Amino acid sequence: MRIVALCDRDAVRLAETAVRFGITRTYADADAMLADGGLDFVDIATTVASHRPLVQAAAAAGLHAICQKPFAETMEDANAMVEAMNAAKRTLMVHENFRWQSPVRAAIDTLRSGAIGRPFFGRFSFRSGYDVFSGQPYLATDPRFIIQDLGIHVLDIARAALGDVTRLAASTARINSAIRGEDVATILLDHAGGATSVVDCSYATRRVPDTFPQTLMEVDCTGGSLRLEAGYRLVIDRGSVQDIRDVSPPVLDWAERPWHNIQESVRIIQQHFIDCLRHGHTPETSGQENLKTLALVEAAYTSARDGLRVRM
Ligand code: 89V
Q1: Nearest CA to ligand 1 atom 5
Q2: Do 236 and 106 touch, CB atoms closer than 8 A?
Q3: Which fold has domain 98-265+284-311?
């Protein structure tokens, strides 16, 4: 597989990327790129409002697609994208990459193996004071911030680790008055398998060292407990026996700290997509599957706004 065409409305970025990677087909308009053909799939790495028209255009062109998270601003848009790709019989994967971070994956795989029994409690935590707004300025101006941008990842990890959710309650706060949306969220989840978990996220937490962009995990199971601690330390306790593993992600040659765990997960999820296309499998984070994570985002905003516990 190789990248044969690039589309970007920012002419400077388009030219720079084309030169850097030796890509000769460049476009400022996605429809023009699709009309020229010669593509197997598109990787849609745009902001959320453009996802629906771009995914529908890919489906109409008979192409498979990867779509960035957050998949959609509304369930209606998300359902429409899934239906369009289903009707075209093409594969749609949401680029929900946090569950693919190798340290997070090591923890999820341990839980899924059943080695420490049945989970009954989880905490999935992302707390930082990192300035994400300078790199992604739109995050400061959207009415929705942390649940839609970051909580979505952590909710997805909670689902990957403990299974689907039956009920949810959320509280939010805005600590940084320079932004429009909420920058703190605490979400209580009941999982179908019987576990309860807490997803807590903050971009208003000052601490040294700052753990950005690590998701910390803590899961109690009937046969032991598991913690993914700061600094990528995975601790698995079985009473008297403690297994401590360094699950630090590699810093890929194009990557940089502290983003390297996210950057590695991008490579892993892209590889997963290619493997799925080659073998005719459905991606773990398919559009259809991601509807459940997106529903949790919607439910969290409803719960926080109305002070209600929401049934899924
Ligand atoms: O990578 C992301 O999804 C970002 C961040 C984790 C920085 O909030 O939006």
Answers
A1: 150
A2: no
A3: Dihydrodipicolinate Reductase; domain 2 (3.30.360)
